[in-house]
Amino acid sequence: MREEMKIMIVGIGGVGGYIAGMVGQKYKNLTLIARGKRGEALREHGVVLHSDFHGEKIVKDGVIRECAREVEEIQDLIFLCVKTYALEDVCQTLGSCVDDHTIIVPVMNGADTAQRVREYLGKGLVVDAVIYTTAAANEDYSITQLGQYTRILLGAVREEEHKAAKVSAGVLGEAGIEYEIPSDVRQAVWEKYIFNCAYNVITAYYLGNVEEIRAYEDRRAEFHMLLKEALQVAKADGVHIRQHYMEEEYQRFMRLSKGSTSSLKRDVEAGRPSELETFGGYLLERARNLGVAVPLSEQFYDGMKEKIRNRTD
Ligand SMILES: NC(=O)C1=CN([C@@H]2O[C@H](COP(=O)(O)OP(=O)(O)OC[C@H]3O[C@@H](n4cnc5c(N)ncnc54)[C@H](OP(=O)(O)O)[C@@H]3O)[C@@H](O)[C@H]2O)C=CC1
Ligand SMILES: CC(C)(CO)C(=O)C(=O)O
């Protein structure tokens, strides 16, 4: 019975909090990994989700643990919802809750995230996933999901893992979360990643919301070029990208509602660790290995590193 599945969510920030708030309505065998004050708040008030899309949700059934190392029961399904820079550390804590049948779904950004999980864990069924949403944790550790749209795309190339993607999708669907199983999950992952490589990087570089990027012709042109360079890397890597991707994603950028920005911009602005290595470093490394020139992405990456260094000095 799916409802009896042991489900664990690691990282109860924007994405993990959204998934916990929804999945917890339906699945009671839930373990949430949240540290320090966040863990205390969740123990006291439960997961409190304010969602534009689904309304107000509270989940009080979850068992809260500081670290996955405290969990001795093998889990059926684990959602990893941490930032990409924390992925390796988190995977090292999962040993006692994963066996060969455990499904692990990193609901995170990045082009190589699921592959990294496979390499770090060496066991379990790892699913590639991408989430389209805007969600963030508040100061009181409640979670706000903005806008009338949230969707998770899941899949895997290997047959066994693709079946695991379908099981995970079933769980999400029963919890009221919209999902899709695309025919080419690598395409889905890269199509989001290419956008992130342009949008997250440019908003963080100028520390601006979308309207502050769109207002200047040169910034619009830079956005377009960053998109194009990342697209060229994807193509050189053998990823199939839909035909009118550039035009459609540029139009999406032009239509994003005022005030929209990226997680990278929010993190850099707040002086927190960031996913720059995911949106800049990894792209540059792939470009170098594949012999693709990405001069503007390089310029933005170097500029961002410099800015981050200056802010922390
Ligand atoms: N938020 C969004 O709208 C979107 C996010 N994404 C992607 O989803 C991923 C998650 O992002 P998001 O939810 O925004 O990130 P958040 O920073 O909001 O949440 C991450 C959570 O992980 C926790 N965490 C980190 N390390 C550990 C650990 N070792 N053990 C337990 N908890 C840990 C953090 O807790 P602590 O405070 O203790 O560090 C934090 O609560 C990222 O890859 C992001 O790019 C993709 C699309 C949209
Ligand atoms: C696409 C976008 C900008 C949506 O929030 C995102 O993935 C991020 O902020 O990291």
Automatic annotation (TrEMBL):
Gene Ontology CC: cytoplasm
InterPro entries (UniProt xref): 6-PGluconate_DH-like_C_sf (IPR008927), 6PGD_dom2 (IPR013328), ApbA (IPR003710), KPA_reductase (IPR013752), KPR-Related (IPR051402), KPR_N (IPR013332), NAD(P)-bd_dom_sf (IPR036291)
Keyword match RNA-binding: no
Catalysed reaction equations from the record: (R)-pantoate + NADP(+) = 2-dehydropantoate + NADPH + H(+)
Assigned keywords, A-Z: Membrane, NADP, Oxidoreductase, Pantothenate biosynthesis, Transmembrane, Transmembrane helix
Domain of life: Bacteria
Pathway: Cofactor biosynthesis; (R)-pantothenate biosynthesis; (R)-pantoate from 3-methyl-2-oxobutanoate: step 2/2
Regions crossing the membrane: 7-24
EC number(s) reported in the record: 1.1.1.169
Domain Ketopantoate reductase N-terminal: 7-157
Function description: Catalyzes the NADPH-dependent reduction of ketopantoate into pantoic acid.
Family stated for the protein in its record: Belongs to the ketopantoate reductase family.
Protein name per its UniProtKB record: 2-dehydropantoate 2-reductase
The species this protein was found in: Sellimonas intestinalis
